[in-house]
Structure formats: C-alpha cells, structure tokens
Amino acid sequence: MMFTQTNLTLPARDADLADDEIGAGLYVDETLVELDTGDLVAMSVKPHREPNTGGLVVCAWARAVHADGSTICDNAGEIVENEYRATFTAGDVADYGVSHLTRQVLLLMLGEPLDDDVDENGISTGPLKVSQDVATSVSIRNDLMVATIAAGGESEGAGVLFPTDPSPL
Q1: What domain of life (predicted)?
Q2: pTM of the predicted model, to two decimals?
Q3: Are 96 and 51 in contact (CB under 8 A)?
Q4: Which of 20, 60, 157, 165 lies at a CB distance of 3.0 to 4.6 Å from 45, suitable for a disulfide?
C-alpha cells in the first residue's frame, strides 16, 4: 500500500509477478506497505496486556521487502528491519483506545508524523512521547536510506585515517 496519513492504495504492480506471487513471502501477520519512496515494507504489530500493571505493550516490526515479500538485505548481508516496543498506561488505553495507540507505533516505525500534535521541542503531546533521536532510530525509512548509502560506497576501513587527498580537513 502506498502510505500517507490520508491515502492508502495497493502496491504498484510488478509485471513479472503473478497475482498469487505478490506478497507471497510475507508472514501471516504482516501487511505490505508501499512508502512514498516506492520502497516496500512488511509491517506487523501485536498489542498485548502488560501483566501486573493493567497497561498495554505494543510490539511492532518492520522489514524491507521485495514485491514478492522476500526480505531485502544490505551489502553486508544483514536484514534491513527494525523493531519497537512501547508501553502505555491503563489510562492511555482508556483515553485513546488500543487502535489509536497501535497506529501511533506503526506511524513511528514508518517514519511518518504521529496523529497527535507536537510541542515546541517536537515531542508528541499524545500518549507516545519519543524524542527525535528515537523516532529516527526506529524508522524503517531511515534504515533503508542508510542501507542504500552504505551500499554505494567502498569499505575504507582504517584507511579513513590516512586520506589520499592532501587538502586540510
């Protein structure tokens, strides 16, 4: 699905795949999402009650995939994926509902703005309060960007200590 906060559409059709092959590699609990960049992401989320607190834990997973649902790996062979867990109070559950809380975690993982307003520091005024650093680190969008940049460069190793360009740093 092309994901924006106001528009959900089916993924772009890959002419090489038959209807039954699109997303065939997804796990049973995953949903295929197409970002506005054209990248495909398999998303999964599981909210469950936090024992002894009455609160809620929302666990979400995102992995970059090809149109057939197979996992994308970076140039080191590592899977491009991310996971995030958020804990909410019983009051949050009563005030916002499980669907809203779950949606906020998924938006965060997709690198999308949360539904709730933000304060002057850029932190959500809703129940999911995360810094920009946390938002950046859990975004599958950023994982994809770094994997793409890393794949484009050569591994320099310790050679970065001894630049071949004599110009001053």
Answers
A1: Bacteria
A2: 0.75
A3: no
A4: 60
